[in-house]
């Protein structure tokens, strides 16, 4: 899955928060000075082309809605990072976090306990 640019992620976060919207409605969620309508429209069409959004037509205008949830995007992003940077090994990723002290051994034990208890 393609990684979203900062602007694309900003727009997707608004769709995830507010649901289906026309570009004009999207524009209203920005503080002044708001991004130009054409700029937002271009980014929304890119997001649609890349499979993040789809639309319903109402007359000569489109209402866009997300095709992927924020949680799903997060899961796929993490999977992509692990695939690209840790040779598709979750063990290598977790090991890296432990080595860099991003997660303590005690936190790792707690995680293992949670996983074992959820399987029961």
Description:
The structure is a single chain. The chain is mostly helical. α1 (6-18) packs across α3 (37-49). A hairpin with a 2-residue loop joins β2 and β3 (61-66). It is elongated, with a radius of gyration of 19 Å. The chain contains six helices and three strands, in the order αβααββααα. The two termini are 33 Å apart. It has a three-stranded antiparallel β-sheet.
Topology (SSEs and partners):
Elements: H1 6-18, E1 21-22, H2 23-28, H3 37-49, E2 53-58, E3 61-66, H4 70-85, H5 90-99, H6 105-118
Antiparallel strand pairs: 1-3, 2-3
Helix pairs in contact: 1-3
SS content category? mainly alpha
Q: Give helix and strand order, one letter per element, not per position.
A: HEHHEEHHH
Largest beta sheet, briefly?
A: 3 strands, antiparallel
Mean pLDDT: 89
Helical residue percent band: 55-70%
Shape, principal axes of CA atoms: elongated
For the largest beta sheet, what order do the strands appear in spatially? 1-3-2
Secondary structure: number of strands: 3
Radius of gyration: 19 Å
Number of H- or I-type helical stretches: 6
Low-confidence stretches: none
Straight-line N-to-C gap: 33 Å
Beta strand %: 5-15%
């Amino acid at each position: 899955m393609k990684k979203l640019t900062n602007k694309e992620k900003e727009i997707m976060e608004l769709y995830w928060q507010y649901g289906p919207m026309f570009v004009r409605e999207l524009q209203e969620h920005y503080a002044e000075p708001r991004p130009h309508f054409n700029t937002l429209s271009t980014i929304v069409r890119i997001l649609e082309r890349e499979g993040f959004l789809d639309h319903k037509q109402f007359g000569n205008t489109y209402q866009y809605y997300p095709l992927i949830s924020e949680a799903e995007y997060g899961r796929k992003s993490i999977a992509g990072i692990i695939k690209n940077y840790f040779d598709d090994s979750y063990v290598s990723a977790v090991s890296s976090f432990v080595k860099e002290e991003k997660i303590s051994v005690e936190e790792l034990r707690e995680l293992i306990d949670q996983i074992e208890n959820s399987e029961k």
